[in-house]
């Protein structure tokens, strides 16, 4: 375990390097920070930190920079994330409150996160597998044609056309709508197949074929894979950090194009809490020079998806974590109210 003083020196090195982009020397540390010890003691502490792998010396400079291990300890020992100011919180709320539907919420969230953190923002669409049914609407378009509208607790709306095997009257349609919603409203998608399994048996023999067709369309909608989508924004922000990537920015850009990679990184943990993956903690080689800060968002205290940012390991972790957490909280509120 590091002594509190050496941890203080490490914190100072991280803060200075993030702020100045320059390797940090012992003289600068003692001048900028009230460490309460001599420059010689700071040099000894820095030598010990280097021996233990928390900081390293770039070949071009006498100063030191944090390693992935150093950033990891810095994040783990954070007293707290940087709170958003009142004007920042109002700006977030005003920007997101104008959203008209789920696609707009996601698009606005991506733009907002990229602007607040000046990193690449990644927002996953709410997963249908973790969603619940708010309402199923059935509308008659023709004697043997019905529109099925599925509305989720996250404000997602899915529409499907159903061609029925026989004409289906308005009274029968209203009866099916009422019985269907009494069983599935407020229930998880994964529970629905079992809940509606015996529903056709309660209808007249001539209507059972149509009821089964409508239910088949509903179940197909529930299991479709299109929920695993995400939106990315602010990729141009990476160009500001060209010197933070050892050789070229290209592997990072290629990784960002692989949505499967990002979905895996966002979704590896079911924990809705804050996750920070630093440098080589990212399994995908193209992202070894980046850090990913993510958190779950949702309504009713349960995460339905994740959002976060990707940037260089030389990142303002307290500020980034504060912004990501604040935006996730507002998105959750919007979904709960939608």
Write the layout of secondary structure elements.
Blueprint: H1 4-20, H2 26-32, H3 39-51, E1 55-56, E2 65-66, H4 68-76, H5 86-97, H6 102-117, E3 120-124, E4 133-142, E5 145-152, E6 157-163, H7 170-184, H8 192-195, H9 208-223, E7 230-233, H10 250-257, H11 259-267, E8 275-278, E9 290-297, E10 305-312, H12 317-337
Antiparallel strand pairs: 1-2, 3-7, 3-10, 4-5, 5-6, 8-9, 9-10
Helix pairs in contact: 1-3, 2-3, 5-12, 6-12
Report on the architecture of this protein.
Helix 5 packs across helix 12. A hairpin with an 8-residue loop joins strand 1 (55-56) and strand 2. The strands form three sheets. Strands 7-3-10-9-8 form a five-stranded antiparallel beta sheet, sandwiched between helices. The chain has a three-stranded antiparallel beta sheet with strand order 4-5-6. It is α+β, with helices and mostly antiparallel strands and 338 residues long. The longest helix is centred in the last third of the chain and has 21 residues, at 317-337. The mean pLDDT is 87. The chain contains twelve helices and ten strands.
């Amino acid at each position: 375990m590091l002594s509190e003083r050496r941890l203080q020196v490490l914190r100072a090195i991280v803060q200075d390097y993030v702020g100045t982009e320059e390797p940090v020397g012992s003289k600068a540390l003692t001048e900028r920070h009230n460490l309460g010890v001599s420059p010689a003691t700071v040099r000894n502490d820095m030598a010990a930190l280097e021996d233990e792998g928390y900081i390293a010396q770039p070949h071009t400079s006498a100063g030191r920079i944090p390693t992935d291990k150093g950033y990891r300890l810095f994040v783990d020992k954070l007293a707290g994330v940087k709170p958003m100011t009142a004007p920042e919180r109002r700006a977030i709320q005003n920007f997101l409150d104008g959203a008209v539907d789920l696609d707009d919420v996601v698009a606005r969230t991506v733009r907002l996160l990229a602007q607040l953190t000046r990193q690449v923002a990644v927002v996953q669409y709410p997963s249908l597998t973790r969603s619940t049914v708010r309402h199923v609407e059935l509308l008659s378009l023709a004697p043997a044609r019905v529109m099925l509208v599925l509305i989720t607790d996250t404000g997602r709306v899915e529409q499907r056309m159903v061609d029925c095997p026989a004409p289906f009257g308005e009274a029968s349609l209203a009866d099916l709508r009422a019985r269907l919603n009494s069983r599935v409203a407020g229930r998880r998608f994964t529970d629905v197949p079992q809940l509606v399994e015996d529903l056709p048996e309660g209808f007249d023999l001539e209507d059972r074929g149509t009821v089964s067709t409508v239910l088949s369309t509903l179940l197909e909608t529930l299991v479709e894979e299109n929920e695993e989508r995400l939106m990315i924004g602010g990729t141009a922000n990476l160009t500001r950090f060209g010197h933070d990537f050892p050789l070229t920015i290209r592997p990072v850009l290629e990784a960002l194009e692989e949505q499967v990679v990002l979905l895996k990184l966002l979704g590896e943990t079911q924990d809705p809490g804050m996750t920070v993956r630093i440098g080589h903690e990212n399994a995908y080689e193209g992202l070894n020079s980046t850090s990913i800060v993510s958190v779950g968002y949702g309504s009713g205290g349960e995460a339905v998806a994740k959002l976060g940012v990707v940037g260089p390991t030389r990142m303002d972790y307290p500020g980034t974590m504060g912004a990501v957490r604040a935006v996730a909280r507002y998105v959750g509120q919007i979904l709960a109210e939608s």
